[in-house]
Recover the amino acids of this structure.
């Protein structure tokens, strides 16, 4: 039985990719269009008619003994292409996937875990009626004044309260975020920088109180990653002056930039929309994974408009193997941000499509 379950887990990403490929032709997904106004609190919740959606929380934590830690909590929702009139309660009308990780330099590599479930039976859901998503006893929910994240993973746990301190930051053109030269490849996308975090973590059975700051991305789309792109580099940075920077570049099969964009919010609240000519990721140092032999550029100089921001990882080994759920292997890690020789903030760097072309969203 164990061998059969492992075989099923290994095959599941390919089955999901096949379902998504069919979905392009078969499913009636709504289009992402310009001039669509995002509405809050409505858009904190899910949008189940769209093909793909995620809630991405990343941040830095500090313990009473001044340990610096990073954390990631991600919930994905995808709508496969199936006969939706099928009366069976087992029909996978929505699939929920979750990743979680803790970057702990004392541990030397990520604490990480993952789950995948079909929606239903009260075990997994992302209802459009409330800002909450869960799989079993993993959940992310927004109340009147804060998010609550509860993750009980194999060897660690996260029990965190995340309080917004700034209004949502709308990325792209008022939340319409283009991902290719064609406007068809786009998402609705907002970020919530500078979430104030408190709570506790558990590592190997030992509980520790923590505090810190986090970043939440919420994005939904029907046609996301262009076939010309193999992956992306992304940053979300909480700057010490109260500002925030989101920037990304998609890479083509030769490794060159395919599309870039970003949003820079100054400390006084002024927002700058950054286009392809304004964003550049310049790798400075690579790290090779001892498990997958993938080379990741874990240190960058990022040009964002007139600013030049250096990124250095909290630790080199922040590779996440999610082949048993989303099918991807990627690097997602806590980074320091510096400018003109001084530290100016902290955030997260995500690197996808380095071992092989990313299949999620195709």
């Amino acid at each position: 039985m164990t061998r059969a379950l492992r075989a099923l887990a290994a095959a599941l990403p390919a089955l999901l990719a096949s379902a998504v490929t069919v979905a392009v032709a078969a499913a009636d997904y709504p289009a992402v269009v310009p001039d669509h106004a995002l509405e809050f609190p409505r858009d904190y919740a899910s949008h189940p008619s769209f093909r793909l959606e995620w809630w991405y929380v990343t941040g830095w934590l500090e313990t009473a003994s001044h340990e610096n830690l990073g954390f990631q909590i991600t919930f994905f929702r995808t709508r496969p292409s199936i006969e939706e009139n099928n009366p069976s309660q087992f029909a996978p009308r929505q699939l929920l996937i979750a990743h979680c990780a803790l970057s702990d330099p004392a541990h030397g590599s990520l604490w990480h875990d993952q789950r995948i479930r079909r929606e239903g039976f009260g075990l997994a859901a992302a209802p459009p009626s409330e800002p909450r998503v869960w799989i079993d006893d993993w959940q992310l929910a927004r109340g009147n004044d804060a998010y609550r994240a509860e993750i009980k993973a194999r060897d660690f746990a996260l029990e965190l309260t995340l309080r917004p301190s700034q209004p949502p930051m709308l990325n792209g053109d008022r939340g319409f975020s283009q991902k290719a030269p064609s406007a068809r490849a786009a998402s609705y996308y907002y970020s919530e920088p500078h979430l104030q975090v408190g709570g506790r973590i558990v590592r190997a059975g030992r509980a520790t109180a923590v505090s810190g700051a986090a970043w939440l991305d919420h994005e939904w789309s029907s046609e996301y990653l262009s076939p010309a792109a193999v992956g992306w580099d992304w940053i979300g940075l909480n700057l010490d002056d109260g500002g925030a920077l989101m920037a990304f570049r998609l890479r083509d099969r030769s490794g060159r930039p395919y599309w870039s964009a970003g949003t820079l919010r100054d400390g006084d609240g002024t927002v700058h929309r950054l286009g392809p000519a304004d964003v550049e990721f310049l790798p400075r140092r690579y790290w090779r994974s001892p498990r997958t032999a993938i080379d990741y550029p874990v240190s960058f100089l990022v040009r964002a408009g007139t600013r030049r921001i250096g990124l250095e990882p909290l630790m080199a080994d922040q590779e996440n193997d999610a082949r048993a759920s989303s099918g991807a292997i990627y690097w997602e890690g806590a980074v320091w941000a510096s400018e003109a020789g001084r530290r100016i903030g902290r955030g997260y760097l995500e690197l996808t499509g380095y071992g092989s072309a990313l299949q999620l969203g195709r």
Summary: The helical segments are 2-26. The chain has one domain: 2-351. The domain at 2-351 is CATH 2.40.370.10 (AttH-like fold).
